[in-house]
Amino acid sequence: MSSAIVVGLCFGDEGKARVVDYLAKDFDVGCRWNGGPNAGHTIIVGQQKYVTHLLPATVLYSNKLSIIGPGVAIDLAVLERDLIETGAGSLGNNVIIDKNCPMIEQKHKDADTGDNPLSKKIGTTGRGVGPCFADQARRSGTRYKDLVDEPAQADTSAIIHHAMKRGKSVLFEGAQGTLLDNIHGTYPFVTSCSTLAGSVYSSMGVNPSYISDVYGVFKAYTTRVGNGPFPTELSHQPLTEKLRMAGGEYGATTGRPRRIGWLDLVELKRACQLNNVTKLVMTKADVLSGMPAFFVCEAYEEGFPAYAEVPGWSGDISNIRHYAGFPYNLRKYIARIEDFTGVPIVLISTGPERQQICRGA
Ligand code: IMP
Ligand code: MG
């Protein structure tokens, strides 16, 4: 079994964690490689809801190794809470933190509040991640190994290299999304690190030849938290509210209401290229159920999105487990996205629960 990357194709909150949770059963190791506690990864198992900020979603499987790589900014208090809330317990055999992780200090959090004009302008999550990475770039930051005893100092790059060489498979879980990438996103309204699949190689220092698939995750519509361009954002307040309610579109880290808009196929196609996506995953298809019609951006004309109308479908799809059981218009929507991007949609989620996911055609 070879390794794979799960990456967000939009502004984050695409549902990467629930996809990792679904795929994890076929992998030996899970690994977070970027971002920090600005991420909020939600997984629902039965009646239980878990939100992790630093730990990969594989942590819910006690028989998997979960790794935080050296490119992840660590806040020790958040790490502690993640360990408790996911039931992972303590660091040790099943959860390993890289010795070179940059540490978020109180001064980083103090510098990343609404009082800071730049944080306010961007609408950051306020978790100190940007100032922490800035200190790393300045070469003045503290690393995990500066704070812990020698036995706790792990070289996760080497651990993963040897695991892969022995035939073990690793699932890399991205944070944020392509349009929040520090270089290719909507700069300056972006996060402070790379969010692309390619950053796995530089951040983890692993051999790309062991990684065969890049799963690109997107929602059936689009959301954004924080400020910055969102060309397909909805201006129709009642509809925004309706979709926000139906999709539970509130930030998992900050609780902020997410901005809502239509799917932007032009940007989705670009995101597929930037990440070399081999498989697409569409989440929250159920949220659009019951809309007579909705829209999708298929081109830009003089800088503005040009929309195509998509006929909707009715009925509850949350219990459908086979592609053939989907309403005709949902299958047509899926095919339209595949045609536009040139990438197959291999999984479609129809609800937040672990089992509410269905293979593509
Ligand atoms: P920062 O990463 O906290 O500096 O925030 C920079 C921008 O990225 C803001 O617009 C945040 O709302 C956004 N952002 C950061 N992390 C996430 C995430 O996990 N999901 C969605 N948006 C995020
Ligand atoms: Mg999130």
Structure description:
There is one protein chain. The chain is of the alpha/beta class and 361 residues long. It has one domain: Adenylosuccinate Synthetase, Chain A, domain 3 (Alpha-Beta Complex), CATH 3.90.170. Helix content is 26%, strand content 22%. The chain has helices spanning 16-23, 76-85, 106-110, 117-122, 129-138, 144-147, 156-165, 199-204, 237-247, 265-275, 328-341; strands spanning 3-8, 29-32, 41-45, 48-52, 65-68, 95-97, 170-173, 211-219, 222-224, 259-261, 263-264, 279-283, 293-301, 304-311, 345-349, 357-359. The strands form four sheets. It has a nine-stranded mixed β-sheet with strand order 6-5-2-7-1-8-12-15-16, with helices on both faces. Strands 11-13-14 form a three-stranded mixed β-sheet. Strands 3-4 form a two-stranded antiparallel ribbon. The longest helix has 14 residues, at 328-341. The chain is globular, with a radius of gyration of 20 Å. It starts with a strand and ends with a strand. The model has no long low-confidence stretch (mean pLDDT 96). The structure holds inosinic acid and magnesium ion. Residues 12-13, 39-40, 252 line the site of magnesium ion.
